[in-house]
Amino acid sequence: MSTRASITRVGIGLAIALGAMVPTATPASAMTVKHSVDVAHFDIHWRCPGRDPVEHATATVRTTQFWSDGVRVRSIEHWLWKGRLENRDTGELVRDDGAWTVFSFYGPSGHFVKGATSGSVWRFTVPGEGIVVHQTGRSVYGDDADFSSTFGGSADSSPLCAFV
After folding, report:
1. Radius of gyration of the chain measured on its C-alpha atoms
2. N or C: which end of the chain has fewer CB within 10 A?
3. Which structural domain range is residue 155 located in?
4. SS3 string of 17-80?
5. How many domains does the structure of the chain reveal?
6. Each residue of 51-69: pLDDT tens digit?
7. For position 157, what pLDDT does the model report?
8. Nearest C-alpha neighbor of 76 from the set 68, 66, 88, 85
């Protein structure tokens, strides 16, 4: 028997075996993927001693959600933050940008189970100095965690008050 004939027979045998398995296999659950983009423009008053500086910001959130049999099982949010902070003394606009990703995982009933946030919440350029200060990191949390900001409360901008 030649090698070519052996390969052909193996191929035919595999095709027959796979053909027999298809009708007996259990149907896969339907996975649906949904995409959305949300954009918001707003002003934030920083809490600083004296007059509060105001940040003019735009947040763009690109979300991908995965649904199985009508239940959300996972979502991924990509955040892009474009902020311009008004200097209290000069009125000059200072760049404050960030980009981070939030991963969320859900249980069989659709309730939140676990999440993780990773990236740069802000990148702040100190006026006149050219120094870039940034808040980066990764946070993992469960459904019983209490978090108020992207990195569980650690994105505190108050040390930057001296520069604005």
Report:
1. 26
2. N
3. 29-163
4. HHHHHHHHCCCCCCEEEEEEEEEEEEEEECCCCCCCCEEEEEEEEEEEEEEECCEEEEEEEEEE
5. 1
6. 788 889 999 999 999 999 9
7. 66
8. 66
